[in-house]
């Protein structure tokens, strides 16, 4: 394989249970075939990619270029999504490039204890994402012009009080919804809400969270999310959108995914 | 999710539960999870997601670390008419933290003054 070593690099998607119990997707990043390498009781799902386009140098060059990165990230996700719909998966983050199978195995071996711990946490569980959006704006300023500066200030003050009260009510409702779902989950993560420019919506995201849910509890979790959604719509002018099951990306921390990923997911920023 | 389903879900606030796909709707969610960095906005992009379709996304995306975003002073949920609660909570915490630090400093300065005063008294004796 020494020839191949010079022209290809190994891209790791994630780890699955050993024994080839479920089917791999046919194609991965850059249309490459997908194969596995044994790693103790697990298997690493990988593709051989042209070194020319995917070496560490290429990542350094393009790693922050969305046009280059997006199809790579999408293909990486598609492989993992295929796998999570068929069984347990420990997803690895990008970039996950190694010069050879041996180098990849060495890297995994060096963090084996952490990987085992992560595997124990993730086995039998999937990630559900939850986002909360408002369905109505906060109270808007009243129209008629104030008759005096004093009246203007008083009115402004009462409007601000009303806004603060409403804001407080929403804050409480969002927090309570999150806490109720977190109680049903093995773990949870709250991320910074995504910007409107990214979501392409007029309304801002109020909560962007993820939950690690037992596969057997999925229906129960979703039923609760739907109940909370109906409650929020009726009483607080907000709605819930859930996405899943995701590969449990948000719950593979530094320990799970190798030395590169120092930050444990958590409250950001 | 098809176009018709999407517009329907926007009309009435139904509970939506989607399968994650690397489609434009959930692209940001995918990037956020798959990359070991945060995502931040800037500049229009065109993305070839599947070989068959070229999707122009009116999304402005740039990949950068969360720290870098903070350096750039991007605080996207500030000053929004809908208001995100999370931010106000953070501000309160920041204020509390500053107050705590100020109090700690003040008490330390107070202690030092006492020591100085004590020394002066002793000297006077």
From TrEMBL, chain A:
The keyword Repeat does not apply. It is found in: Gas vesicle. It comes from the Bacteria. Residues 137-174 are annotated as: Disordered. Keywords: Gas vesicle. Its main location: other. Residues 144-174 have a biased composition (Basic and acidic residues). InterPro entries: GvpL/GvpF (IPR009430). Belongs to the gas vesicle GvpF/GvpL family. This is Gas vesicle protein. It comes from Nocardioides luteus.
Automatic annotation (TrEMBL), chain B:
It is found in: Gas vesicle. Keywords: Gas vesicle. Residues 1-24 are annotated as: Disordered. InterPro entries: Gas-vesicle_GvpA-like (IPR000638), GvpA (IPR050530), GvpA-like_CS (IPR018493). Belongs to the gas vesicle GvpA family. This is Gas vesicle structural protein. The lineage of its organism: Bacteria, Bacillati, Actinomycetota, Actinomycetes, Propionibacteriales.
